[in-house]
Amino acid sequence: MSYFVVDIESDGPIPGDYSMICFGAVLVDEALNKTFYGKIRPISQKFVPEALAVSGFSREETLLFDDPTETMLAFEEWIKVNSKGRPVFMSDNNGFDWMFICWYFHHFTGRNPFGFSSRRISDLYCGLVKDTFAQWKHLRKTEHTHNPVDDAKGNAEVVLHMKNEMGLKISLK
């Protein structure tokens, strides 16, 4: 299996009614140098200004972003090229990030290379330290900037820390 940490930015709370604006992914390995970045033009007229502001882009800028189908197909190809075995989706907040990525894959390509499941980094950490309230974000090395590649990389650094320093049994191929 190959593990990919993914982070997304959107202009609202749910896919379909609102749009995924951009996303980043990093292959979890010791180098953390295989990344993907996609910027997708909006798919609806609806947006929440405060949600869009988190991405750092204006509505006008996002209207010039790439076609969703082309971007999702490019992401799928990048996943295939960088996978050894089944790709596994990991995220800081997979209830949010997974929802958008899964919806966009199925809506624009008819399939999801990640299948039907994902892993939440916080749950792995809380399990390792046996504390459901444990905080882990201080273990990021890369600053959390809301650039989704930076954020995915910082979260992947935490996965590596859990593997290398805390004994998480994970096979990184």
From TrEMBL:
GO terms assigned for molecular function: exonuclease activity; nucleic acid binding
Protein name as annotated: Exonuclease
Record InterPro entries: RNaseH-like_sf, RNaseH_sf
Assigned keywords, A-Z: Exonuclease, Hydrolase, Nuclease
Transmembrane parts of this sequence: none
SUPFAM superfamilies (alphabetical): Ribonuclease H-like
Organism: Flavobacterium rivuli WB 3.3-2 = DSM 21788
